[in-house]
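Write out structure tokens for Uroporphyrinogen decarboxylase.
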Amino acid sequence: MTALKNDRFLRALRREPVDRTPVWLMRQAGRYLPEYRATRKEAGSFLGMAKNPDVACEVTLQPLRRFDLDAAILFSDILTIPDAMGLGLYFVEGEGPKFERTVRSAADAAKLGVPDMETELRYVMDAVRVIRRELDGKVPLIGFSGSPWTLACYMVEGGGGKDFARIKAMALNDPETLHQLLSVNTDAVIAYLAAQRAAGAQALQVFDTWGGVLSPAMYREFSLPYLQRIARELDRGALRQAQGELDEHVPLILFGKGTAAYLEDLAASGADGVGVDWLVELGEAARRTQGKVALQGNLDPATLYGSPDAIRREVRRALDSYRDGNGGSRDGHVFNLGHGMSPDMNPDHVAVLVDEVHAYSAR
Ligand code: CP3
């Protein structure tokens, strides 16, 4: 494989010195880009795009043509796993993802198994391979998965819930079934991330988007232990590396929304990076994690609705906050938003953000 031309992102995840703070944005490929909307129209649907490796590659590369981003993220979705488990994923315009079948009972959970990565999820692995080839070493490629808990939310609710009534009732009334579901999800997530790594992903991120809807006691029972298992078991990659299967360690980032209360636990999980949302000061996050991990984040995505001057001001504030909490060093920081971008955001504002990160953080 071609050597990487820009390894800032991977160096920052190792907390090594870099010339500029690296930046990428969650949901950097998407509906806010006119070229994305054009490709989507041609492909017919979101799933039609995600399931076609050449189209997934095209859409992955679109934001990199416009902006000076330091990483690419695979164009796919977290719900590919439950879809491959047989739940029947579909999208309703304006309503988001839905499943034809849900998991509500022990019998439903017992039917689930880990999908085969090179048959049922082959389209994802093929997309990783095509994107790596087309990137040609320009920047590293991030593979990803949902967390076991976040996937379970969609599988039990049957789509994007608001109050998570059904899965919380399951946690209260039938925790054994929920643990069974989380356990098979964890096996699937580990196999999925390992397969993306084998196909060429150079970093891996787990999205625990709904971790923050749980009470602390429930987070510690239903989300954290499974994230910890992922970090532990994926790290067996170290063994595979020793056996010559992998060239180098592929770093793992754990992103959680509303989960800043557990930063210390996430930093001790064995992951290389922790993604933080905008409800915590980066400086505070850096102080609390004490250099154990790299930190990724954390501008409020709504910052992109501000004027260019306001965006630059907020970028500088976040960069300075990280440095202040990190003993005066900017190393070990990957700049990002605290969550994904929205369809009504202005692409010109993204350029302002990305360029300001690089300009202001230049060492
Ligand atoms: O970051 C990237 O650019 C990579 C691609 C990516 C997508 N989804 C593309 C997508 C990633 C990393 C995801 C993850 C994902 N998907 C998460 C976790 C991250 C997060 O945002 O919290 C979740 C919860 C999902 C489930 C999901 N898929 C939702 C809620 C939606 C939006 C539905 C809607 O109508 O707004 C999707 C669809 C989806 N995934 C889109 C994109 C670009 C929009 C699809 C379209 O074109 O209509």
